Hints:
Blueprint: H1 2-26, H2 31-48, E1 63-66, H3 72-82, H4 122-135, E2 142-147, H5 154-165, E3 171-177, E4 180-181, E5 184-185, H6 186-189, H7 195-201, E6 205-210, H8 214-224, E7 232-237, H9 260-271
Parallel strand pairs: 1-2, 2-3, 3-7, 6-7
Antiparallel strand pairs: 4-5
Helix pairs in contact: 1-2, 1-3, 1-9, 2-3, 2-8, 4-5
Amino acid sequence: MENRVKNLEExxxxxxxxxxxxxxxxxxxxxxxxxxxxxxxxxxYYDEMNIxxxxxxxxxxxxxxxSKGHACPVLYSVLALKGYFDYDKIYTLRKLGSILxxxxxxxKVPGVDMTSGSLGQGLSCGVGMAIxxxxxxxxxxxxxxxxxxxxxxxxxxxxxxxxxxxxxxxLIAIVDNNGxxxxxxxxxxxxxxxxxxxxxxxxxxxxxxxGHDMKDILRAFNEMKSVKEQPVCILANTVKxxxxxxxxxxxxxxxVAPNKEEFAKAIEELKGGI
Length: 274
């Protein structure tokens, strides 16, 4: 277990370096929410999900939906590092003609299972995928990453009750609970209250974890496998901008690219570990 965890922690550092590199090169993007998602995305792609980078449309593959699509640098980075496309494409983020636009496009990027943009839609699409997989007798699972600010959207809860009705135990929502959204702290904009209790009230099995403790993330993924007749919500408690001291828990880093000096400082910090 120790070697497994250490390897994943090292992969997460590589992921964070790639996230910052592509955003710095583009001069725009969303570092905060990408960095907060880096650990559980690493665990999914390197340890948990059944995927094959050489066959992105594998019928039996697990699906991943990044509902908070503005955090696409975390998805692009892991896909590049896993070999879904040439790594050098990370330097084309948000550039004219690039496959890597400001939101992921399933028609352009190998490995992207759903085009996302407007917040609140990903879980509904995940429900549809999960129902379809069950009707097709396909054992694949659907993972949906949601921002905590995003779950203020009503459509999330319509999808949540639908998932419970159909007992979609092949659907896993991961709530990136970093406490910050575009305009500030969620507690100031629209307090979320008891997030775990809300999901439970809608019929979901809830597992909380430290979204930056790799061992705890793996524990949560292991626990979800025992759930038989409910969709699962993994409430990942995270820090926006995790891994970079001056970005961590600072709302202004939601959608700002680091300049040359900030980028160099951030990469130096990551070289020393998290």
